[in-house]
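USER:
Working in pairs, take the chain set out below, taking as long as you need, and write a paragraph about the fold.
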Amino acid sequence: MRILTELEQFDPALLQKYNRPLPRYTSYPSVSQLTTEFSELDFRSAIAASNYRKTPLSLYVHIPFCQSACYYCNCHVIVSPDHRIAIPYLEYLVQEIQQTAALIDRKRPVTQMHWGGGTPNYLTLEQVKLLWQTIEQQFTLDPAAEVSIEIHPRYVDRNYIQALRAIGFNRISFGLQDFDPQVQAAVNRIQSATMLNNVMNWAKAANFTSVNVDLMYGLPYQTLSSFRDTIQKTIALDPDRIAIFNFAYVPWLKPVQRQLDPATLPSPTKKLAMLQMTIAELAQHQYQSIGTEYFAKSSDDLALAHQHRSLTQNLQGYTTQLNTELLGFGLTAISLLEDTYSQNHTQLGDYYQAIDTGCSPVSQGIKLSRADLLRRDVIMQLMSHGYLIKSEFADCYGIIFDTYFAPELEALKALEMDSLVKLLADSIEVTSVGHLFARTIASVFDSHTPAHGQLSMVI
């Protein structure tokens, strides 16, 4: 319970001092560093190098469509109640998968796959089966692969969930966000407690390996008391994993958020109180903190990987798949191939046109330097494990850590004085309070300057 004691002693003045816009560090460099100078040839060269390394694959499939808009959303989505819009998209998505798969060594197993959105269950079950069969035909799925899908609880029934499990999905995730009716109405996501309980019961009855739920703090009309009620109801659902996201109010970047009244948003101090309460409540119910946003039961793979220091992070969140390379399919999807990041077009017309010409629909990307790889490793270890061993970087990169990062270590001294980190002879350790500001600590090692629109406040 040491973490709870330290959080209770947290100095609120630190929030005012360190609460500033920063990247989320689900990748490094951030997406804002991608450039249109990255070409089709660069993407093909990255795949060729990836084949030479023979690393296992992780696949991401993006379904961008939603039946209705959630006003807090900062994802790239297309809102349409007319589901016929998905018909041509699915045809092009199949083509993209086939075109890319033709470049991939079939001996490389797919050990992880995730379908996200948008709303993947916007698709009919027949469309889901078609897409699954395409992937199964084009890639070698490991029988033990982690295969997850996000669903919107308003648009599923028991049969749909059972069918997803029968098709081959073994992990499922859905958004709760908040149980309070006033909050739900404000963000245009009405879903009753009965509905959410039904979806959880259906998922458990279908024997998914893991069930994840998402919550969000900082939404309109949330209070410490109302969010405590949401946390307690979430615990009663007994999910395997819980993700708690900080709402990023960026209406200049996501116009749908202009539907929200900023006067109804809780202050940073109130948001911090919600987060402290959440950490305390979940810890008391045997949920282990994974980074600053994720919690997992002690028996869950994520918790075990965190304990054994075999956890890593990518654009899909925390994962146990250390040595995979990610291929993203669909509108806006991002691929991470060792030392390159690339992103698909963000507009349907551009996406379709690229595939029509037989090209990969990549619109921008970046080739990472050795310095980028080193800094990415540092940042991901701090974000995933809360500490790093300096001598390991000497072995891996041939550097003397204290010499190479002398300016950064000097900058960290100020954070150490505020009890956010401990600077030891051969390690850097993030404190319990420091975990609230993990992005602040990671930013010390960030040599890029992300575009302001891509940033969000720490709390």
Summary: The chain is about 40% helix and 20% strand. The two ends are 23 Å apart (CA to CA).
